[in-house]
Input
Amino acid sequence: MEQVKVLSSETSPFGMRVLIALEEKSVKYEYQQEDLPFNKSDLLLQMNPVYKKVPVLIHNGQPICESLIILEYIDETWGSEKILPYNRALARFWADFVDKKFLDSGIRIVKSEDEVQEQAKRDFLENLQYLEGALEKMSAGGTLPFFGGKDFGFLDIAFIPFTSWFHAFETIGNFKIPFETEYPMLDAWVKRCMERESVKKNLLSSDRVLETALKIRKRFVVD
Output
């Protein structure tokens, strides 16, 4: 009998990606919550000895690590409907952008203060503008609903978990993301994604994410 297990933590947007993809593919799985960063399970250390981090997908005893790689593995292993679009290179480029430039600006908002934080907020909003442009291009000017075109796909799954952190970024950075005026396509896209059962089930509440973000901040900044 096929065995699928996910090791993750509840606030990890990377782990949320994996759970959303499995739900989209109707794959049954077991979930193991990891108490990070200081109490990693023996199974996590065994399955991901190189990076020692979540998420890890364990399929019939074989570990697959790094969330974007896991998404591609899920796509190749289960179901006839593919989450990677025809233009795979473009989707991979923007998913990498989310993981590097976009995430970096959000992390800097949480971990910094004063002018460093102000620059982080400017970078964050600029990165959102890049993603607004990518969505416009990949959705044929908004005539299609998702980054994946007509279908909810790879980049949608890669990016939507980070929206659960937006409230934390806004609260800690003391600013408001002007979705309706500056990012209307992203605003509509988030609302469409939130209608999907896979997303509603696996995105953590913004208040719970804020609790985690404030704990992270305390390790770096004394307000």
Observations:
- The mean pLDDT is 95.
- The chain has eleven helices and four strands.
- The chain has two domains: 4-77, 88-218.
